[in-house]
Amino acid sequence: MCTPSQLKEVYRPEEEATGLVAAALKQTTSRRGLLTGALAFSVAPLVGWLPASAATNMTFSEIAPGVFVHQGPHELQSPQNRGDMANASFIVGNDSVAVIDTLGSAKAAGDMRAAIKSITDRPIRYVINSHMHPDHVFGNAAFKGDGVQFVGHHKLLRGLDQRAGSYLAGSKAMMGEDAFAGSEVVLPTLSVDDRLTLDLGGRKLELEAQSVAHTDNDLIITDSATGTLFLGDLLFSGHIPTLDGSLRGWLALIEQLDRHEPARVVPGHGPHAMTLPEAMGDEQRYWSTVAADVRQLIKEGRSMTEATKTAGQSERGKWEMFDQYHVRNVTAAYAELEWEE
Amino acid sequence: MNNKGMETHMPTQHAPSRFLFTLLAGTIAAGVLALPPAARADDDMWPSLRKEVFGTRPIAEDDGVVIIDAPERAEDAAVVPITIRVPPSVKGPLKSMTLIIDKNPAPVAAAFKFGPAAGEGGGERRMSTRVRIDTYSNVHAVVETADGKLHMKKVFVKASGGCSAPAPKDADADRANLGKMLVKSTAPALPTTPLREAQVMIKHPNTNGMQMDPISRGYIPARFVKDMTVKSGNDLVFTAEMGISIATNPHFRFTYANGGDAPLTVTAVDTDDTRFTGQAAKETVSQ
After folding, report:
1. Partner-chain contact B211 A212, CB within 8 Å
2. pLDDT averaged over chain A?
3. Alpha-carbon separation of residue A155 from A232, B172, B243, B255 (angstroms)
4. For B53-101, what is each residue's pLDDT tens digit?
5. What b/e sequence results for B223-235 when a residue is b if at least 16 CB atoms lie within 10 Å of its CB, and e otherwise?
6. Option in A161, A165, A299 nearest B164 (CB)
7. pLDDT tens across A244-255, in order?
8. CB contact under 8 A, B83 and A246
9. Is the CB of A305 less than 8 angstroms away from the CB of B81?
10. What is the pLDDT at residue B173?
11. Nearest chain B Cα distance for residue A296, angstroms
12. From A174's CA, which of A34, A157, A195, B180 has a CA 20 to 30 Å away?
C-alpha cells in the first residue's frame, strides 16, 4: 500500500547516480546548508540502488546521500522472513556508520551487516534502537564485536530487559530455532536522557527521547546533513499502527512533529521515505477514530470486550495487518481511556 | 486422592488456604516457571484444587446457575477479561463466588462473599474482572447459592506468559498514580429496576513476585490488592479476597441492588497494608 507522499520516485534506483546526487545535494544544501563538500565527495560513489550481491540478499535504497533504508514486508515474524518485517536503516559519515534498528534476528541483521560492508569500509560505530520491540532490536547481536555503542532511549534498558524472556520465547516460537539462532537481547550501552548528538564525521545525528507514545522508550533521529527524520514506529504507513504506550501521548506527539520540518521522514513500517505532514495523516485518523469510538463506548457503559467488537471498525480495509493488531489496539486504548474522568 | 464415598455435606464454610491465593516467594515462583510447560500442562489439577478449596462438598456442574465468559484465546495473557454471570432464572441471594485459574501458580484469583446489598435477582447478576493467565488452563467459576449448594462452570482459555509478563505500558505513570481509585455507578433506565451496575478500578501494579527487576536482577517483591469491601450506603455489597492472578490495575464491574441514591463506597487493602478508598461520584452515569 503506497501513499502519494512516498518518495521512492524521487530517488528511483534506475536514475543515473551522479545526477541524483547533484539533485539531492542541491535540495539539502539549499534547505539546510549543512552538507559539506567532503561528505558529498565521500558518498557520491555510493549513491544508487543496491542490487543483491553475492554477499547479501538484502536490498537498501539510498533515499538521500549516505542514507540507506531497507523496507521490511508487512508480515508477522516467520521462519521465512527471519524477523525481517520492519524498516532498518544506516547512515554513512566520513568517519563512521550508524545503524538505526536491526530487524528481528541475528541472521537477518547479518545480511544487513554484509550489505553495509559491501557499501562502505567505514566502521559501524553506533547501533541505535528506535524502541524496544523485537523486530527492531533482535539483530543487535550481529553488530557485537565491532566495538560499537548500542544507543537507546533512557527507558529502553528497563523496557527491553523486563520483556526479554517473553520477547525471546515469542520470537523463537514464531520463527523457529534455526531462523532465530544467534539472536539475543543486547542492552543499550549509551542512553539518551533527552537529547544526544552523534558525530559520524561530516554529519551529525540528533537523537531525541520522546515521552510515552508508541512505547515508553521511543527515540527519533535526525540526520543533520540531509534533514532526514527517522521516526521508528511513531510512524506506520500501510501497516496498521500498534499501541504499546499511550494513545493520548501518541496523538499529542503527532501534533508536535511538524516543528521538526524534516526534508523527509522514514517510518518504522511503510515506505522507505515519506514527507510531512501527509505521512502522518492516516495514522492520525486511525488513532483519532479509535480514541473517539472508545471514549463514546466507555461513556455508554460498554465493556472492554464489547468495545473490541465495534470501536474503530470503520478503519477495516484501510490497513494491512488489521486483523492481527486492531483488537489489541482497542484493548490498550480502552485500558488507558477508561481512567479519564 | 479418592473422594468416593466421602461426599458428606459440610455445613461449615471451607475457606481456601492463603497459599491458593498467593505465592509470595520469588524463588518458589521461579521454580514453578522453570518447569517446562509439558510438565504441568497435562495433568488435571481440578480434583485436588476443588478439595483444597471446597473440601468434599458436592459441586453441581453445568446446571445453568453459573455462566462464565472468557476469550477462547487471550489477546493479552496479562489482561484476560472474565465475566461470571448468574442468569435471571436464578432467584434469591447468592452467598459467594470463587474464580479459580487451575494452572496459575496461585490458582484462586478471587473469592467474593456477598452481602444484603448484592441483590436477590430480578435480572442477570454479573461480576467481571481481568486476570493473568500463565499457561493454557481451565478457568472455574463456583457460585454458592443461599441454600449452601455449590454450582460450577468451567471454560478453557488459551493464554501463556500472563504471570511473568510486565504488563504496564507506562510503568512510571502507573507508579505515580498508585492507589488512585475510580468508582462509577450506572443508574438503570428505570428507577424500579432491581439491579444496577457499578465499576471499581484501582491503579495498582499488583506485582506478583514473578516479574524481574532489570536493575537488581532480582524478582520484584509481590505487592497486590488482597482485600476489598464494597458497600451501598451502610449495606455490604461484597467483600473480595484476591490473589496474584488479578491483573495490574484491578478492575471489577458488577451488578448490585438498585438502592437509589445510596452512595457506593469501596475500601481496598494491599499486601503492604496500604488502604485505598473510593466512592462513586454523585452524578451517576445514565445509560
Report:
1. no
2. 85
3. 16, 10, 30, 41
4. 999 999 999 999 999 999 888 878 888 999 999 999 999 999 999 999 9
5. bbbbebbbbbeee
6. A165
7. 999 999 999 999
8. no
9. yes
10. 85
11. 12
12. A157
**Cell 543533520 maps to which residue?**
A224
Q: Residue A40: what residue type?
A: A
Are the C-beta atoms of B253 and B199 separated by less than 8 Å? yes
Contact between B76 and A166 using a beta-carbon 8 Å cutoff = no
Q: Which segments in chain B show pLDDT lower than 70?
A: 1-19, 21-43, 162, 164-167, 212-215, 217, 282-287
Edge-to-edge order in the sheet of strand A88-92: A61-64, A67-70, A88-92, A97-100, A124-128, A149-153, A190-192
Q: Is there a contact between A242 and A287 (Cβ–Cβ < 8 Å)? A: no
Decide if A331 and B76 are in contact by the 8 Å CB cutoff. yes
Chain A nearest C-alpha distance from B176 (Å): 14
- Tell me the nearest-neighbour CA distance from B160 into chain A, angstroms: 10
Q: How far, in Å, CA of A137 to CA of A75, rounded?
A: 17
Over residues A241-300, the pLDDT tens digits come to 999 999 999 999 999 987 889 999 999 999 999 999 999 999 999 999 999 999 999 998
* Alpha-carbon gap, residue A292 to A271, rounded angstroms: 28
Q: For residue A165, which residues of chain B lie inside 8 Å, CB to CB?
A: 164, 212
Q: Are A135 and A236 in contact (CB under 8 A)?
A: no
Contact status of B98 with chain A (Cβ, < 8 Å): no
Write the CB contacts of B24 (distance below 8 Å, at least 6 apart in sequence): B209, B222
Q: Residue A249, class by beta-carbon neighbours within 10 Å (0-12 exposed, 13-18 middle, 19+ buried)?
A: buried
Q: Is A266 helix (H, G, I), strand (E, B) or coil?
A: strand
pLDDT in tens, A117-172: 999 999 999 999 999 999 999 999 999 986 899 999 999 999 998 888 888 988 99
Please indicate if any CB of chain A lies within 8 Å of the CB of B55: no
Separation between Cα atoms, residue B69 and residue B87, nearest integer Å: 13
pLDDT digits (tens, 9 = 90+) for A104-120: 999 999 999 999 999 99
